[in-house]
Write a structure and sequence with these properties.
single chain; mainly alpha; Na+/H+ antiporter like fold; 19 helices; 2 strands; disordered N terminus; disordered C terminus
Length: 380
């Protein structure tokens, strides 16, 4: 049993003391990527229209490439053989559904109405963001926070299915029914389930199928040990490169909003900051009280705190127009989410070491001599 625990600890993702250069300085790389994107958009005014002219579905093609690029390595390292067992954990799945589809939209609705009472268009945009549960970047945040990759894949798939069915329903509830109960005018959200399904199939289906086929084919051709110990360590860092590329493209395409409307951006950013922080804290605390292990707690927390910005932007632009306040609020969403969520990765790791001090994740790798001695003892 001790050998199995030691092996599990040795195979866990590296944490702060054992991070690569790319991982250790990731916050700096992210802020440099944001600055580079802003500078490119400012120095080359024609860049943003050129990037936005090329689209995959309703998302700028360079951003779509970055999203698919950063998701593929994460989904290629998922152990799909474990998913049927993991999917049987109904307590964790139900907790995720409650956080994502009951608490999350209600919290964003409340923050939007409290903090933006005089800007109904920004309020509507934030509610649209709150209804879109994350299916892309959450995989990277989960990986960086040493969450459970298999659970992340299951929860993302679950949220995707619920998103297709519930997005328009909850859109009616929070944009039409509840405002009318409060004595305000409602806003119609005209978006079909087919459009949502297409977005899910593109941004989850493509990297999911690619990751699954990579694992199955290379695992059979080269062996599972080679795949886990040689191929994945080389492939995994490219997820962060994809993330940085996506950030540069996002800020070069949409970052000009920050420079032209800084006051409005700050007002939109405040409820978003509170939302991400409160959802993460609530999910982490609830998971801890329910005695979920750290890796599952981290996965549940980032799944609850993240949002599907590509869907939210597509809905806001498709329904209200690209120059609308609703679209502006949706665009600001990922510009705030990226730096906040990377900060929460470090908060999660700190809380994990504090609240889960005996988790095998924090155990140092077994010394080679001890491992050899253990093997020789088993032989004798």
């Amino acid at each position: 049993m001790r050998d199995a625990t030691t092996t599990r600890a040795a195979r866990r993702p590296a944490v702060v003391g054992r991070l690569s250069t790319l991982d250790r300085w990731l916050p700096m790389w992210i802020f440099l990527a944001m600055a580079l994107g802003l500078a490119l958009g400012k120095v080359f005014p024609g860049l943003a229209p050129a990037l936005d002219a090329m689209k995959l579905d309703t998302v700028s093609l360079p951003i779509a490439i970055g999203l698919l690029w950063m998701m593929y390595p994460v989904l290629a390292r998922v152990n799909y053989e474990k998913i049927p067992v993991i999917a049987g954990n109904t307590r964790l799945l139900l907790t995720s559904l409650v956080l994502n589809w009951m608490i999350g939209p209600a919290l964003m609705f409340a923050l939007a109405w409290i903090l933006l009472p005089d800007h109904p268009e920004y309020r509507t945009g934030l509610i649209i963001v709150g209804l879109a549960r994350c299916i892309a970047m959450v995989l990277v945040w989960n990986l960086l926070a040493c969450g459970n990759n298999e659970y992340a894949a299951v929860l993302v798939a679950l949220n995707s299915a619920f998103q297709i069915v519930m997005y328009t329903v909850l859109g009616y509830v929070y944009l039409m029914a509840v405002p009318q109960w409060l004595g305000a005018a409602g806003t119609a959200l005209d978006i079909s389930m087919g459009a949502i399904a297409k977005s899910v199939l593109i941004f989850l289906g493509i990297p999911l199928v690619a990751g699954f086929l990579t694992r199955v084919i290379l695992g059979r051709l080269k062996g599972q040990e080679w795949y886990d110990t040689r191929f994945i360590p080389r492939l995994a860092p490219t997820a962060l490169i994809g993330l940085l590329f996506t950030i540069v493209m996002m800020f070069s395409l949409k970052g000009g909003v920050i420079l032209t409307l800084p006051g409005d951006v700050l007002r939109i950013a405040l409820p978003l900051l509170l939302y991400f922080g409160l959802m993460f804290t609530l999910a982490f605390g609830l998971s801890y009280l329910l005695k979920f292990p750290y890796a599952d707690t981290a996965t549940l927390s980032f799944t609850a705190a993240s949002n599907n910005f590509e869907l939210a932007i597509a809905v806001a632009i498709g329904v209200f127009g690209i120059d609308s306040g609703e679209a502006l609020a949706a665009v600001v969403g990922p510009l705030v989410e990226v730096p906040v969520l990377i900060g929460l990765v470090y908060v999660s790791l700190w809380m994990g070491r504090t609240l889960y001090p005996y988790d095998v994740l924090w155990a140092p790798p077994a010394a080679p001599t001890a491992a050899r001695r253990s093997r020789s003892e088993r032989i004798t």
